[in-house]
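Human:
Class, as today's exercise, you are to examine the entry below, and be ready to discuss the fold:
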Amino acid sequence: ANAEKGNDHVSVIHCQKAHLLVRIFLFRRFDEPSVIDKVMSNLFSEKKMQLRTLVLFAIFFEGLISFELARRIEGRVKWMAKGEVILQKMKRWSEYCAWNFENKALLLSAERKAILGDFDEAASLYTRSIQSARDHKFIHEEAIASELAGIFFYRRGFSIKSYELLMHSQRCYERWGASAVAMRVGIFIDSTFGSNFAQHETGVKDVPSGCFASNRGPTSKRKCNLENGFDFAKP
């Protein structure tokens, strides 16, 4: 009985840490690496840990967060190494179950290549990850891959391609039910490209900027509550 209680306690801790990792990434809270480091403890590498769906999901986010932090000067080697360990896990798991892990391995690979400066390969991997997520019906991971690809192309100076990918990401987040995350992406789109970008640069007049909900008004006039209203387990 005591052993079962102990296992239940560990499982709760795993779930709590998984939830924190997902929130850190989806709301892009990368400003406190020391806090992130505590969340990304060795619990996820324990051999006896039950690899529940949520934990597997969190390991993926652990890799994404690691590569994001590796873009910063401080601790780059440490975070790059952590990301590469998780990338290898995803590649290995994708060999046994491509349906669940192929798009994740491709996205982590894209992030790694982008950091290393292999931009052509990174661009291809982002595209393949988006397509794989779409083919395998992972709308939330299609959203994530599209957002990261959009950021990648924006950094490379491809504004129109970046805009289109970010808009697609926002639509996917909305379809997933992650309204607060979609709102965050919408605010980023508005602040980065401006409200008239679609019409002036792409020639498309009916693509709204900001959040997808015409009855909500302009993004800049709405309060954006990122703390509440989002359940990452929502289908």
The first helix runs from residue 2 to 26.
